[in-house]
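Sequence in, structure out. Go.
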Amino acid sequence: MIMPEMSGGETYDRMKEINPDIKVLLSSGYSINGQATEILERGCDGFIQKPFTIKELSNAIREVLGS
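Output:
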């Protein structure tokens, strides 16, 4: 994940520090290999590959909120 101040992994870790119970759905245009897999292994609740449809996003959000 490419972001100006923090990597996706750093952002995930910071969000979990602020609220350990937060539900996180990771979205990336890159493959699930690499950093996305590492974040999922650390406890991220779900992953959705870009591009995605509104229906796919809605389903992924429901899955994450139901977990």
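Check: Helices lie at 8-18, 35-41, 54-66. The first strand starts at residue 25 and ends at 28.
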